[in-house]
Amino acid sequence: MGRRWGFLIGFLVAVGLLGSGHGEQQPPETAAQRCFCQVSGYLDDCTCDVETIDKFNNYRLFPRLQKLLESDYFRYYKVNLKRPCPFWNDISQCGRRDCAVKPCHSDEVPDGIKSASYKYSEEANNLIEECEQAERLGAVNESLSEETQKAVLQWTKHDDSSDNFCEADDIQSPDAEYVDLLLNPERYTGYKGPDAWKIWNVIYEENCFKPQTIKRPLNPLASGQGKSEENTFYSWLEGLCVEKRAFYRLISGLHASINVHLSARYLLQDTWLEKKWGHNITEFQQRFDGILTEGEGPRRLKNLYFLYLIELRALSKVVPFFERPDFQLFTGNKDQDAENKMLLLEILHEIKSFPLHFDENSFFAGNKKEANKLKEDFRLHFRNISRIMDCVGCLKCRLWGKLQTQGLGTALKILFSEKLIADMPESGPSYEFHLTRQEIVSLFNAFGRISTSVKELENFRNLLQNIH
Ligand code: FAD
Questions:
Q1: Cα–Cα distance between 91 and 304 in angstroms, integer?
Q2: Could you name the active-site residues (predicted)?
Q3: How many A from CA of 40 to the centre of ligand 1?
């Protein structure tokens, strides 16, 4: 059956025009259906359906990706959690135990990762070290070997890149520290209420291209909202160009993913003997049940799938960069590094084989001048969001918020980088396009989070099937 017919029938079933029919009494919806019945079929603005993503992610990608993210290269992330909030002064640090982040002792992190000048490989490392040493000694450029000069030029160019969608964290600052992501997992922290709402509010209200007159449905910081606000909001959203609508959906998808995680790793028991973390079905329902959220929950889950597709597409597009023979996941442990690169490429080829990739060519198309202006707006808004992460009052939430916005920013940079487009259509690897270790670690960990959310949705679906 054609996709359009499948979609039409799915739609008619969803709105109740095709039922089992003729005035028959419908059985009451189960708890699982109330969260998931609208989260099926085709996703707006894409040619992909939820079921295809579930199957692909949960059985083919998720287990291998988890293994990769446990490796040294991906588990240590350097971050500055002490950067001041650039927008307001009164950040109340929530002070909850579960918000604390434990940084690494310097001897825990492999030397290959710590090396300040790390780039991709031992050779690149040595070149940059040679250069930095020369700089420290006040050497002029001519004293550097030709090869070193070339490398320096390339890295400087890269560091000055205007393709970035994120404000780079100042990882050279003495305040920046390595964090072991496996020891500081994203989970329920208890960060909530007006402080958390303020962050989400600023993100949506000031950065999602939304005029103040349009109210977001169920916004806890706006009083007396009704159905008419909801209708106005969605007709505003539908009236936007595809890029601006995508921007809102990416943020909403990220928000949904964070809230899926805190529901899946909720603090279930807290005694002086032990803490127990696990699935909190009530928490999940309060956030995503179709009835309890007046239809908002399922929409948010669809946005999460949209975000998944965007990051998946970015990874498929950047494969040639990782295939470069001189690219290594360098930690200094040769055997381990080679094994990890093999696993990385296996995962990337799996991703490339996904049959229904998002088509980013529909973005920033049309009139060149307008498209460039729109792209610039998109980039600046996203950079702003990455800066807002320094205002999050719970350090654990800040850590994962920063990592995930940097990861999504890297995905957008890949999707829309002119260099990538110019250099890598079919012709193989680009030597103009680069990613730093920070970008690589955040890209894969951010995707790992969304992939875990999709897997957790299956777990919640199974748990909800057992209750009515
Ligand atoms: P919130 O999630 O705070 O949402 C506020 C309002 O936004 C809702 O009332 C609703 O109107 C709307 N909304 C909710 N979800 C969506 C969506 N997907 N799309 C569009 N609109 C939506 N808490 C943790 O326990 N662990 C964490 O790791 C964590 N990380 C965080 C990271 C950041 C950057 C931020 C800002 C918060 C984080 N939080 C975390 C807090 C968590 O996201 C919630 O803010 C908190 O649990 C309170 O939830 P809430 O139900 O009041 O609504």
A1: 28
A2: 394, 397
A3: 23
